[in-house]
Design a protein that fits this description.
This is L-ascorbate oxidase. The protein is mainly β and 457 residues long. It is 5% helix and 35% strand. It binds 2-acetamido-2-deoxy-beta-D-glucopyranose (NAG) (2 copies).
Length: 457
């Protein structure tokens, strides 16, 4: 395909906008993206377990802006989470200093804008948490470490997408898939060496399949859990999730395609990057390895093969106790069902019939100062019941040290990602149809993974 690299560069609203895109030569695309420190994706944050992070965020956009630290546990400082309810969005031309600790965590994480569909315009980046010296990780230190932020992409601006939802339309099908903001990244390594690939889905709506031509991948880490090291030809990474794999460059000296393609839709969007052998003189060629032909069922079968490596040392989610999670009796069961209703002509998304609206007074402040009338803990049911969806500042109560059994019920037609912000949880079972208590006999109570985002079909 004839290629033209085009640069859209402008200085609207005080922030610089920049995008390189591979397009057929007879049309040129330029669009706004959100940069962090002049970069898209934003700068990678390389930190170490238990680091104390002090991060000052200046908002130069013309809208309020808020970043969230995806998978960073904030049990003791949830007002640093960067989501509505715990943080106020940062007004234009203002700054906010986040302070948090990467307590007992090792692994691959991301940050992204949590409000106003800003994520559709960029503003995201990787957070890689490395082990402290002397803390063994359950695999040899790789010869190199690549971070790949993969995601669907819309040519429509985030403000137009906002207007779609406000006019009652759903998000459209995306226009493409990007790897690190591009459609032509290259990752170089030496033949015979082993590299870590940290892959995160930073997109808006679409599950992606990731694979490397001619190479298999050894799964070693999922959102901070060290896994049983199974070998895969391809991996599904759902929106918001991260995985880390080891890849040995054990093929002939040429270049190979790295592929991210959309899942679960008849129409498949594909993008490639290149794995370059340093001794290669041959560009990547040949057919791309096919996307898995299986649908939801096969994808969920793959998810069931993810197991926690119980003998691996390294950071534990909770060294004090809940490691033996299967022996702890849950305090209560919560069933959360997602739906996509129209309310007052707008496309909204709801949980147990409630579509969340942000209160003017942040929930944390209302709670801390006992301000009445901001929220009520009776505003959402702990399991779904029939009836129309409505708007409310929904808050559910739980007690300190409660151990919860949470069932996610997807009443929509497409794959959904559920994320518990500031926490992780054991994914002990997947199932079809409605959950009932008999499903407990199918739970994995021994070596399930802890993660912060789970796919639900
Ligand atoms: C950052 O915000 C604080 C108020 O929260 C303000 O006092 C300070 O001047 C700001 N810093 C800069 C460099 O604008
Ligand atoms: C689990 O971790 C241990 C300790 O590092 C390692 O020796 C072992 O190979 C891992 N087991 C599996 C099945 O991946």
């Amino acid at each position: 395909m004839p290629l033209l690299l085009c640069y859209g560069l402008c200085d609207n609203f005080g922030f610089r906008v920049f995008l390189k895109w591979k397009v057929p030569c007879f049309w040129v695309l330029s669009m706004q993206v959100i940069l962090i420190n002049g970069q898209f994706p934003g700068p990678r944050l390389d930190v170490v377990t238990n680091d104390n992070i002090i991060l000052n965020l200046f908002n130069k956009l013309d809208q309020p802006f808020l970043l969230t630290w995806n998978g960073i546990k904030q049990r003791k400082n949830s007002w640093q989470d960067g989501v509505l309810g715990t943080n106020c969005p940062i007004p234009p031309n203002s700054n906010y200093t986040y302070k948090f600790q990467t307590k007992d965590q090792i692994g691959s994480f991301t940050y992204f804008p949590s409000t106003l569909l800003h994520r559709a315009a960029g503003g995201y980046g990787a957070i890689n948490i490395y082990e402290r010296p002397r803390i063994p990780i359950p695999f040899p230190v790789p010869d190199g470490d690549f971070t790949l932020l993969i995601g669907d992409w819309y040519k429509t601006s985030h403000k137009t997408l906002q207007a779609y939802l406000d006019s009652g339309r759903a998000l459209p099908f995306p226009d493409g898939v990007l790897i690190n903001g591009q459609t032509y990244s290259t990752f170089s390594g030496d033949q015979g060496k082993t590299y870590m690939f940290r892959i995160s889905n930073v997109g808006m709506s679409t599950s992606l399949n990731f694979r490397i031509q001619g190479h298999s991948m050894k799964l070693v880490e999922v959102e901070g859990s060290h896994t049983v090291q199974n070998i895969y030809d391809s991996l599904d990474v759902h929106v918001g999730q991260s995985v880390a794999v080891l890849v040995t460059l054990n093929q002939g000296p040429k270049d190979y395609y790295i592929i991210a393609s959309t899942r679960f839709n008849r129409k498949i969007l594909t993008t490639t990057a290149v794995l370059h052998y340093s001794n290669s003189r041959t560009p990547a060629s040949g057919p791309l390895p096919a996307a898995p032909s299986y649908g939801y069922h096969g994808s969920m079968m793959q998810a069931r093969t993810y197991k926690w490596n119980l003998t691996a040392s390294a950071a534990r989610p909770n060294p004090q106790g809940s490691y033996h999670y299967g022996k702890i009796t849950p305090t209560k069961t919560i069933v959360l069902a997602n739906s996509a209703p129209l309310i007052n002509g707008k496309q909204r998304y709801a949980v147990n019939r409630v579509s969340y609206i942000n209160s003017d007074t942040p929930l944390k402040l209302a709670d801390y100062f006992g301000i009445p009338g901001v929220f009520s803990v009776d505003s959402i049911e702990s399991s779904p019941s029939g009836g129309a969806a409505f708007l409310s500042t929904s808050v559910m109560s739980a007690n300190l040290h409660d151990f919860l059994e949470i069932v996610f019920q997807n009443d929509e037609k497409t794959m959904q990602s559920w994320h518990l912000d500031g926490y992780d949880f054991w994914v002990i079972g997947y199932g079809n149809g409605l959950w009932n208590s008999a499903k407990r006999s199918t739970y994995n109570l021994v070596d399930a993974l802890t993660r912060h985002t789970v796919q639900v079909k």
